[in-house]
Amino acid sequence: ELKGAAHFVRRGEGGYLHLFGPHNTKAPSWFMQHDWGTKISYRTSKLFDEKLDLGLTSYSFGTYEIRISTPERAILELINLSPREQSIEEANLVLEGLGNLRSGILQELLSKCQSVKTKRLFLALSELHNHAWFKKLDLSLIDLGSGKRVLVKDGVLDAKYQITLPKEIASKKDEK
Fold first, then answer.
1. What is the pLDDT of residue 1?
2. At what angle do helices 71-80 and 116-129 cross, to 10 degrees?
3. Closest to 115 (Cα-Cα) out of 170, 156, 163
4. Are 127 and 173 in contact (CB under 8 A)?
5. Which residues contact 150 (CB under 8 A, 6 or more apart)?
6. Which of 91, 146, 154 is CA-nearest to residue 124?
7. Which of 175, 148, 134, 8 is nearest to 78 (CA)?
8. What mean pLDDT is predicted for residues 101-120?
């Protein structure tokens, strides 16, 4: 969102901020208890090795500087929240608008991503939008695991990625 890649405009004050930290790391209590004017969700993640700095960049506002995810890493983090905390449909709409992602960074992030579900869902949705960067990815270098993954009840199985998609999204893939 800070890099202009949000799909939906917030109404009024507030909003929601997703923060990811290394596995087994707590956010400082002073930070979580402070009223930032937005809801904060902090979670630790094993999506990437905690030492992996790839896909992180510095962001300055006022006198503060923080590390934030680049759009390439952020979309994988967003998709990782699907379908429990983030709808697949909304993640798909955000991904649709990301025509300027960098294939080299995506390739490396996907090769180091530790979630088969995230990689499969990202690739299935990316293929739907046919972005130029998607065509440059070497899928043979990405471990997609084995077995089917059911993400949505009464979904449609994407045969290539062995993952169930919402019917509306699967029908769009079939149209292409």
1. 57
2. 120
3. 163
4. yes
5. 164
6. 91
7. 8
8. 96
Query: In Å, how far from its chain's centre is CA 138?
Result: 19
Rounded CA gap, 69 and 121, in Å?
19
pLDDT given for residue 31 in this prediction? 83
3-class SS letters over 77-118: HHHHCCCCCCCHHHHHHHHHCCCCCCHHHHHHHHHHCCCHHH
Q: pLDDT, tens digit, for every residue of 54-74?
A: 999 998 877 888 888 899 999
How far apart, in whole angstroms, are the C-alpha atoms of residue 55 and residue 159? 30
Over residues 10-54, the pLDDT tens digits come to 444 556 677 877 777 888 888 888 887 888 888 877 888 777 789
